[in-house]
Amino acid sequence: MDRKTENPMEGKWIPATSVRSGAGEEVVSDVYSLTVQIVNVSFVGDPESKQGWVLVDAGMPGSADDILSTAADRFGGRKPTAIILTHGHFDHVGAVVYLAKKWNVPVYTHPREMPYLTGRSRYPEPDATVEGGWVAKISPLFPTEPVDLGGYVKELPEDGRVPGMEGWRWLHTPGHTPGHISLYRKRDRSLLAGDAFVTVRQDSVYQVMTQAPEVNGPPRYLTTDWQAARESVRKLASLEPAAVVTGHGRPMAGEELSRGLEQLARDFDRVAVPDYGRYVDRIEH
User: I want to staple 203 with a disulfide (CB 3.0 to 4.6 A). Which of 54, 136, 180, 184 is the partner?
Assistant: First the structure.
């Protein structure tokens, strides 16, 4: 299959690679995080068992080979039972069409993300006017075209279950996108937060390249609803997660995570919301 014909974002300009690109980390025994260029994908499932596993998010355009190689190393020849998308931005769906077809598995998302995954709607343009670093200024170069998963994409169950991920629940955490979700497992307080918050300052080239860990709000140049983003962070902080994988930045755990997330929730308007930008005026205090 020619992947370029399957992905309208192929060939678009994408940000520089971080120094952690290709690095993987076992966060807990059945959650493995892989950094592909500047974004993380998660492999959820016990590699020692014969049970199924699930891929969470699908990386940047051109990520398929890295994802397939890691899956083979971790799970042998077993394909996943499903792909779960936290949202449909270009850096989280880069390989999803190819992988869904290769593995012949369903892709699950929130109903409000469906227009962006069935070819019907583009996301709002990135905001180059937003307060932030150099990445924010060049963000209009990032692709906003939808992908079209056709019949592969399904809506997540309304009751909060996550197909293929026993013990996990999905939580609606909008703000960064209308249908953004996070995934939480109560028994060990593991959290896959997507871009509801991140552990690197994503608009700073230096921070993206070095991946120095710190809890930050969602990427500024693509977040369109700051009031919803604030409430989503507070919802996740109330869970008191013990370990987290975010869409960008290194996994975090323990006191460093607790302290950083508590501060972000408490001081969100001051530390996360930009002082100016196209979407900032919409926030209500």
Answer: 136
Q: Closest by alpha carbon to 60, among 39, 42, 84?
A: 39
pLDDT at residue 207 tops 60? no
User: How many of the other CB atoms lie within 10 Å of CB of 163?
Assistant: 19
Quote the pLDDT of residue 195: 98
Alpha-carbon span 240 to 237, nearest angstrom: 5
Adjacent-strand bridge partners of 190: 185, 243
Domain at 14-272, CATH from 1.10.3720.10, 3.30.70.20, 3.30.420.40, 3.60.15.10: 3.60.15.10
CA 148 to the chain's CA centroid: 18
Q: With residue 45 as reference, give the H or E element that holds it.
A: none
Q: pTM of the full predicted structure? A: 0.89
Domain ranges of the chain: 14-272
The helix/strand/coil state of 39 is strand
So what's the pLDDT on residue 21? 58
Q: For 81-115, how does the pLDDT look when each residue is reduced to its tens digit (9 = 90+)?
A: 999 999 999 999 999 999 999 999 999 999 999 99
Distance CA 38, CA 42 (A): 14
Strand partners, 108: 84, 154
Residue 210 has pLDDT above 80, yes or no: no
